[in-house]
Specification:
Radius of gyration: 21 Å
CATH architecture of the largest domain: 2-Layer Sandwich
Largest sheet: 5 strands, parallel
CATH topology of the largest domain: Aconitase, domain 3
CATH superfamily of the largest domain: Aconitase, domain 3
Helix content: 25-40%
Shape: globular
CATH class of the largest domain: Alpha Beta
Structural class: alpha/beta
Oligomer: single chain
Number of helices: 15
Number of domains: 3
Distance between the termini: 53 Å
Number of strands: 19
Length: about 450
């Protein structure tokens, strides 16, 4: 029987299927952080349960940590408590923790891949919706709630129903300045924020086959923004090359053996999907969002479409925009380049290339936040830090930062921010803040000009 890539990984991890019910589903790797794990550990203690397999858990601090002076005691009381709780829980249950000051610390969905912890064919969960990022490696990865975090801690399994299967194919030649971020924003604009609900999405076609691992992670990261449970891309030579020499990757003969297995992780020719969508790459241009959900996206120099329903009109009112309006020329005072979507070295190389020998506009506050200590070190090794500082961009230490306004890095009320993050919800980047999602290169151009520009006709 022909199977999809998703079927192959999912079915091989079913411990038992309950008749007319969910699967008992084995989890290979469980990532935890300081925000969604404390309650789960408390539940274990209340029920007098132990952690089933500490060796399959990796912890880091990222969401609520400061990105300035990480060597000093945390000032924010909530953040301090959460970080201390995680530290104590990891110590008590013998779980590896990449704490502040650790050379491997960073955003959970950045460090997993860069350390080689994330590997093809795995099942991966985390108490964070953007766990779908790891699907770029041919893994079945998805976010879980706090009660499910406790379930995995206690049993290394989940009770879960198998999602339906969707395939999204893109072939053809991409337009100038189109990045993986633009590709996923384009898909979401076409399918909507509920278009993937109930599905696990496989991305296929020439565009994804040619894409770097960093790009694939960006695409899979935002699968959740169209309602999908997760996204997945078949592993190939690009994947295997990326994993070579990573700290936790297999080595030597073991790696060769693993690659033989990983090469089988692809959709069979006659496998059936529950739903399929195809797009032509030539129709994709740099993208911007104009509303308060990622589905409200458009070609960067288009005019905002007409909207009639109350929700969309409320969204436009919040953003201060009107139907028929162009965003070209819109003044922007805040630019954020970071998050688990776009905070890898490839993203910062792209930004540095654009801004080199240029200076940001005087009105702009431009924040650059690497996704990990390793990325920060690489920025310095390649001299990109000098380009950023010479251009007036401020480099911070690793963390989720202004993606979600949970820490000190918030956008002021009423201000517009061009952000490379994944969500543009009302107040997502701080109470009253207004977010426009874009690619790193369009964010960089905005910072230099102090306004949104026609990047393809500069």
């Amino acid at each position: 029987m022909s199977k999809t890539l998703f079927d192959k990984v999912w079915d091989s991890h079913i411990v038992e299927s309950i008749e007319n019910g969910p699967d008992i589903f084995l989890i290979d790797k469980h990532f935890i952080h300081e925000v969604t794990s404390p309650q789960a550990f408390e539940e274990l203690k209340r029920k007098n349960l132990r952690v089933f397999d500490p060796g399959k858990i990796v912890a880091t601090v990222d969401h609520n940590v400061p990105t300035l002076n990480q060597h000093l005691p945390i000032k924010d009381e909530l953040s301090k408590i959460q970080v201390e709780k995680l530290k104590l829980n990891c110590l008590e249950y013998d779980i590896d923790l990449f704490d502040l000051g650790n050379p491997n610390q960073g955003i959970v969905h950045v460090i997993g891949p860069e350390l080689g912890i994330t590997q093809p064919g795995m099942t991966i969960v985390c108490g964070d919706s953007h766990t779908s990022t790891h699907g770029a490696f041919g893994a079945v990865a998805f976010g879980i709630g706090t009660s499910q975090v406790a379930q995995v801690l206690a049993s290394q399994c989940l009770l879960i129903n198998k999602p339906k299967k969707m395939r999204i194919s893109i072939n053809g030649k991409l337009n100038k300045n189109v990045t993986p971020k633009d590709i996923i924003l384009y898909i979401i604009s076409k399918l909507g924020t509920n278009g993937g609900t109930g599905f696990f999405v496989e991305y296929s076609g020439d565009v994804f086959k040619k894409m770097s691992m960093e790009g694939r992670m960006t695409v899979c990261n935002m699968s959740i923004e169209m309602g999908a449970r997760g996204g997945i891309i078949a592993p190939d030579e690009i994947t295997f090359k990326y994993l070579e020499k990573r700290e936790y990757s297999p080595k030597g003969d073991q790696l060769k053996s693993k690659i033989e297995t990983w090469n089988k992780l692809k959709t069979d020719k006659n496998a059936i999907f529950d739903q399929e969508h195809s797009f032509n790459a030539s129709n994709i241009y740099p993208m911007l969002t104009y509303g308060t959900n990622p589905g409200m996206g458009m070609k960067y120099n288009d005019k905002i479409p007409n909207h009639n329903n109350k929700s969309d009109l409320k969204s436009l009112d919040y953003m201060g925009f009107k139907s028929g309006e162009s965003l070209i020329g819109k003044k922007i005072n805040y630019v954020f380049i970071g998050s688990c979507t776009n905070s890898r070295i490839e993203d910062f190389r792209l930004v540095a290339k654009y801004i080199e020998n240029k200076r940001k506009a005087d009105n702009v506050n431009a924040l650059v936040v690497p996704g990990s200590q390793k990325v920060l070190n690489q920025i310095k090794e390649e001299g990109l830090d000098n380009i950023f500082t010479d251009s007036g961009f401020e480099i911070r230490q690793p963390g989720c930062s202004a993606c979600l306004g949970m820490n000190d890095d918030k956008i002021p009320p009423g201000e517009l921010c061009i952000s490379t993050s994944n969500r543009n919800f009302e107040g997502r980047q701080g109470p009253g803040s207004r977010t426009i999602l874009s690619s790193p290169i369009l964010a960089a151009a905005t910072a230099i000009h102090g306004k949104i520009v026609d990047i393809n006709n500069e």
